[in-house]
Amino acid sequence: MSKAILLDIDGTLLNSKKELTPRTKDALLKAQAQGCRLVLASGRPVNGLAGLAKDLKMDEYGGLLVAFNGGMVLDAKTGEVLFERAMRVEESQAVLEHMKKFDVVVLVDHGEYMFTNDVFKTIERDGKPFDVVEYEARSNRYRLCEIKDLAAFVDFPTHKILVAGTPSYLRAHAQEMAKPFDRKLNSMFTADFYYEFTAQGIDKAEALRQSLDKAGFAPKEAIAFGDAQNDASMLAWAGTGVAMGNAVPSLKAVADFVTASNDEDGIARYLEARVLKDGGSKIVEKPTDPAMMEA
Description:
There is one protein chain. It is built from eleven helices and 16 strands. It has helices spanning 22-33, 47-55, 58-61, 89-99, 132-139, 150-153, 167-178, 204-211, 232-237, 249-254, 266-274, and strands at 4-7, 37-41, 63-67, 72-75, 81-84, 105-110, 113-116, 123-125, 128-130, 143-146, 161-164, 185-191, 194-199, 222-226, 240-243, 257-258. Strand 14, helix 9 (232-237) and strand 15 (240-243) form a beta-alpha-beta unit.
């Protein structure tokens, strides 16, 4: 019996409409009732995890919240901070100064606010204008504040600097954006329109190494689900790594299994087949093949 279920949020736990479906919620509640504990591990800040944790009754069952791609870990029941590592002020300022060279939206959170260089700037996604500032603020329950010179403004440690842009533009400029901070900070794509900076050595796996043993879990007892580049370390660290059907090819390549997509209740289908005691769907026994599920 697995003791921990590690869950990325966007593109994994939530479907493309940003919904936690009834089938996936039910499977996760059953898993907790049978002794598993959940770990929500996301690039989202703590604000963006709290509502989901409550919906999944993690305040009752326990579990962990891994925010900022591993920059902070909290006990879901007590709110205790188990691990935290932020970028130093001078590191954040250097990134923010460098980002002025690029046609991107930059977002930094602090307290109840999301600070950005342009609250009205949109990016292009799927051929349409996309208000990424509003999307990020609403998803994570932040108040917005526009600061024209974020590099001059930020005088506090930051867990994450989020850079948003049109996917084709980010792909073309990601190497140039990251180059000054090679071996100084972590940076990676977390979606096709998001590129993020965190403290050196910080990722989801490192956060789990620092905190899961305190919760009484070992890597071999964990199943990890993800869809993006920033989930690779977590899937590799866990005893079983499961990529969603909608995951990027590089994640599917390192996963032990590939389940159905986030719009097809991929998490629930995998748990019903392999974890839940009352059984459920069946899964083809082929690692890294798309999971052909039977209802």
